[in-house]
Amino acid sequence: MTRYRNSILRAAPGALAGLLAAFTALAVAELAAGAVRPAAGPVTVVGGAVIDRTPAPVKDFAIRTFGENDKFVLQLGIFVLLALFAVLLGTLALGRRRAGAAGVLSFGIVGAAAALSRPDSAGLGDVLPSLAGAVAGAGVLYVLVGYATAADSPSAAVDSVGSAQSEAPEGSEGSGGGWNRRGFLGVAALTATAATGAGVLGRFLSRQRGQSAVASRNALTLPAPASPAPAVPAGSRLTVAGISAFTTPNRDFYRVDTALVVPKVNAATWTLRIHGKGVARPRTYTLDQLLARPLVERDITLACVSNEVGGPYVGNARWLGVPLAGLLAECGVRPPSRGGKADQLVARSVDGMTLGSPVEAVLDGRDAMLAVGMNGEPLPFDHGFPVRMLVPGLYGYVSACKWIEDIELTTFDAYDPYWVKRDWARRAPVKTQSRIDTPRPFARPAAGTVMVAGVAWAQHRGIDRVEVRVDDGPWQDADLAARHTVDTWRQWSFRWKAAPGGHTVTVRATDGTGAVQTEQRTRTAPDGASGRHSVFVTVL
């Protein structure tokens, strides 16, 4: 036991040196990223590379388990792994100082490689944060270990950071019994202070780089729509406690994407390029040019393909935007049914994300648009400012490109977008779904009349009927809120005369084509979850 305790005490200075080296590396990298490009920080580029290489079932599990906190969990995991490796390298460096420093440098190389591999890489400048951080971290580790392996005397402290004097034969460093505790702690405190200052300054620079984008959003006044949204019928908004609001507030609207750092795009410099196969007249548009066109306003429900049955990743908002069909027609694009050469529209985001939509669906008369406004204000940064694409009736991963900057017309045979390369379906119309919002699972309502309520959606087809079943009883019609449009979800309610005991309540919807929501349960991959939502409650 004493030997084990002594081993820990001997390793402690090395572990602390490793942690301080890692902290310094991250702080210096943060500073360099603030000067170069915030998205080039090592945690961001490595995290992005991890996301890109994570199998679809694992991503599905992360979203299902952690929800919109999945990115935070990923970054936390990266920090924990870095801390563990830092402790190991610091302990190694007690006996092999050069090897420990080389290990820190190797992490810089990994970060630099990840930076160059990103689809939004700006070139060699993106490797600077990772390399600068690694060099700083390696230097800190080398110096601190020198103090940790030196005898507690002024001359030894000087020797520990000298050149030839500090080097014991490889494999024998630190074989002495003492260490310069005073010198080590002094340099460690100085290092922690300097690294903290570098990190704070880096964060400040990163925020400043995004201020022009924030200012451009604050200064943006959205024009009035040439085609306002139809008035929402009075009966479309139910007042049942616990039911989802007909219009989802921006702050509550779901966010599912791969961006570890939300892009901050300056509206004044943003452009959109339309080009590719069958584009007779390629064009580039500025935001001012789009805003000068006749805008349409529509209520549209969006759904994420990662939404489990009964899940939260669906929301309804009032969108303002430019009809996409008009822009494409202006560029000479025709649908395949009219002799067009392209059957896939590939939208590219400023962060390199690619989404592929069927050209036929975009041009079939539905309200596909390039949205600039959401619920009466410019798009929030989280939801794609300054411009995002929407195609009602398709899952977001094949239609709802945020921070869009490029539209290329091509074919499904010629190009696989981001998610298709990861085994998701090329074509993904939204499936007919319904959800019970109240009562919540495992609720304990009192016996008597219990209000069961929720929402149902089948964008571009609409919802014609919702039914509820208690346990193995018959299906009974729920009361439907008034229909607004086929592109919005529909609220429903059902007065249940609940008897005491445990009960399972299930819901199903029928869409505008007469198709009944299937009971066959499938996971989200490759084209969206299916099945019927149910909740178990105990009636008291």
List the helices and strands and how they pair.
Elements lengths: L1 H35 L5 H12 L2 H11 L3 H24 L3 H21 L10 H21 L5 H7 L20 H29 L1 H8 L52 E6 L6 E4 H5 L4 E8 L10 E10 H7 L13 E6 L4 E5 H4 L6 E6 L2 E2 L9 E3 L13 E7 L22 E6 L9 E10 L5 E8 L5 E2 L1 E2 L9 E9 L2 E11 L22 E6 L1
Parallel strand pairs: 1-10
Antiparallel strand pairs: 1-2, 3-4, 4-7, 5-6, 5-10, 7-8, 7-9, 11-12, 12-16, 13-14, 13-17, 15-16, 17-18
List keywords for this structure.
alpha+beta, 540 residues, globular, 18 strands, five-stranded mixed beta sheet, 21% strand
What structural class should be given to the helix and strand makeup?
Answer: alpha+beta
Mean pLDDT: 91
For the report, how would you describe the main beta sheet?
Answer: 5 strands, mixed
Low-confidence stretches: 151-177
| Proportion of helical residues | 25-40%
In what order do the strands lie side by side in the largest sheet?
2-1-10-5-6
